[in-house]
């Protein structure tokens, strides 16, 4: 997920709020420990794991070195070559109990280097304590919080009853197919006997560690329109651009209706369907740019749609087929990703 790119170092320290969850007798860290924690976090941030060519070799090396320093068992799994999953284990005293899994992804979304005040993989800290780095929130901070919480618990002599696993998975930013999905459907995962998983949420702006139990499912929709090409000076029906405009306008209205519910305080951000246009492709290239006096015969737009677990999938599917990309208007559509939420929670949302 795309997130703002600064991360206040105080937030990293909220990992200690994890500790009471496991033990309430651990003293707060000394000042010297703070700088070591931040320095380890910076080293992780400095590994460029940006899609589309993440340096998984370096991130794997870093995580394994952390595991060694914590005496955790480690396993490197490559269901797909070049897409390493690092699985760490802290065995519990009672192996018959189901285990806990703490998951995080190692890849980050791309950055436009020239727009950054500080380089995205420099992990620069300013005078206010803000750390500038791509992935600082999404979600290397969480992976490090897990490791640092274990470090603290280890040094206090704590021993978990249940086995604790940490998985560092690749490719979450491009669909997870070769990462978490492969792991979740493997025998390795089955044998872990996992009872509870903590995964990605939102970085906290304060010292509370917030836990969510639902995630919006991404549908990445590409709609394409076709129409007769024509001179740029001519007005005629059903041009590809005109057809696409109608869809974009319809989608924009839907977006506004959902956003209005949030702005009015009637729904939380995670309870509405968000739609954001991410791609717009059209035009006939020329040596100097684009042909300006020709209406092209094809045009397309791509949307990142996020659907909450309570979203009405059937009516959205219908809306896409009938309003957003109707065949009647010479439109087609495809999904670059289409994830269905599995809602197994029985309690209230
Ligand atoms: Zn993420």
Give me the secondary-structure topology.
Layout: E1 6-8, H1 9-12, H2 18-22, H3 31-45, H4 56-69, E2 73-77, E3 85-90, E4 99-105, E5 124-125, E6 130-132, H5 136-155, E7 164-169, H6 180-184, H7 187-192, E8 194-198, E9 217-226, E10 230-231, H8 240-263, E11 274-282, E12 285-286, E13 289-290, E14 294-295, E15 298-307, H9 313-324, E16 331-338
Parallel strand pairs: 4-7, 4-8
Antiparallel strand pairs: 1-6, 2-3, 3-7, 5-6, 9-15, 9-16, 10-14, 11-15, 12-13
Helix pairs in contact: 3-5
Signal peptide: 1-25
Family: Belongs to the peptidase M20A family.
Active site: 107, 172 (proton acceptor)
> If you consult CATH, what is the topology of the largest domain?
Aminopeptidase
In terms of structural class, how would the helical and strand content be classed?
Answer: alpha+beta
Q: For the record, what is the CATH homologous superfamily label of the largest domain?
A: Zn peptidases
Helix content range of the residues, please?
25-40%
């Amino acid at each position: 997920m795309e997130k703002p790119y600064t991360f206040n170092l105080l937030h990293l320290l909220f990992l200690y709020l994890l500790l009471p969850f496991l033990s309430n007798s651990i003293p707060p860290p000394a000042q010297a420990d703070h700088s070591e924690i931040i320095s380890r976090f910076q080293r992780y941030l400095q590994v460029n794991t940006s899609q589309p060519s993440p340096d998984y070799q370096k991130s794997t090396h870093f995580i394994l070195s952390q595991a060694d320093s914590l005496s955790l068992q480690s396993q490197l799994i490559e269901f797909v070559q070049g897409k390493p999953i690092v699985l760490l284990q802290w065995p519990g005293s009672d192996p018959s109990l189901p285990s806990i899994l703490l998951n995080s992804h190692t890849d980050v979304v791309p950055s436009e280097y020239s727009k950054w005040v500080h380089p995205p993989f420099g992990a620069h800290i300013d005078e206010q304590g803000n750390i500038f780095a791509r992935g600082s929130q999404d979600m290397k901070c969480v992976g490090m919080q897990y490791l640092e919480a274990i470090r603290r618990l280890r040094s206090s002599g704590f021993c978990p009853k249940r086995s604790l696993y940490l998985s560092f998975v690749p490719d979450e930013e491009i669909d997870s197919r070769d990462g978490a999905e492969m792991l979740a459907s493997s025998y390795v995962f089955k044998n872990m006997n996992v009872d509870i998983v903590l995964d990605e949420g939102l970085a906290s702006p304060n010292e509370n560690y917030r836990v969510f139990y639902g995630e919006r499912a991404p549908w990445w929709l590409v709609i394409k329109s076709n129409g007769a090409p024509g001179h740029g000076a001519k007005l005629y029906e059903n041009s590809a651009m005109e057809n696409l405009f109608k869809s974009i306008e319809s989608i924009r209205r839907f977006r506004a209706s959902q956003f209005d519910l949030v702005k009015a305080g009637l729904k939380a951000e995670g309870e509405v369907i968000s739609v954001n246009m991410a791609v717009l492709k059209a035009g006939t290239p020329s040596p100097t740019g684009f042909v300006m006096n020709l209406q092209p015969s094809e045009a397309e737009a791509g949307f990142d749609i996020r659907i909450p677990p309570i979203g009405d999938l059937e009516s959205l599917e219908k809306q896409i087929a009938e309003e957003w990309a109707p065949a009647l208007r010479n439109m087609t559509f495809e999904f670059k990703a289409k994830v269905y939420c599995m809602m197994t929670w029985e309690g209230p949302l």
